[in-house]
Amino acid sequence: MNKSQLTQELAEATELNLKQAEQVVNIFFDSIIEGLTNDERVELRGFSSFRIKHYPPYQGRNPKSGGAIIVKAKKMPFFKVGKELRDMVDKVSD
C-alpha cells in the first residue's frame, strides 16, 4: 500500500472527501517527521516506535578503488515494530 492508497482507504472509511483525507495523512506523517527531526521518540502503542539512531564516524573502504575512506557521522531514523502488530502479522503468515 502506498500513500495515495492509504488516503483513498481513509476517505472510504470516513466521511472525509479525498482532499481532506490527504490532509489528514500528510499531517500524520509530518508530525512523525517533526518529532524525529527534534530528536524525539515517536511511539504509536501496539503499532511501532520511531527514533533516531546516532552512528559515529568510521573508516570504510571505497568499493571501486579499495582505498580507505572516512564515513561521516550520521543520524538515521529507526523503526521498531510493536508487539501487537508483530503478532497480527505472524498470525496471518501461518
Tell me what you see in this structure.
By secondary structure, the protein is of the alpha+beta class. It folds into two domains: 1-40; 41-94, Irregular (HU Protein, Chain A). Helices cover 45% and strands 29% of the residues. It has three helices and five strands. The protein has a three-stranded antiparallel beta sheet with strand order 1-2-5. Strands 3-4 form a two-stranded antiparallel ribbon. A hairpin with a 3-residue loop joins strand 1 (42-44) and strand 2. The longest helix is centred in the N-terminal third of the chain and has 20 residues, at 18-37. The protein is elongated and about 60 Å long.
Q: What is the topology?
A:
Blueprint lengths: L2 H11 L4 H20 L4 E3 L3 E8 L2 E4 L6 E4 L2 E8 L1 H11 L1
Antiparallel strand pairs: 1-2, 2-5, 3-4
Beta percentage is 25-35%
Q: What is the fold named in CATH at topology level of the largest domain?
A: HU Protein, Chain A
Please state the overall shape, judged from the principal axes of the Cα atoms. Answer: elongated
Regions with pLDDT < 50 over 5+ consecutive residues?
none
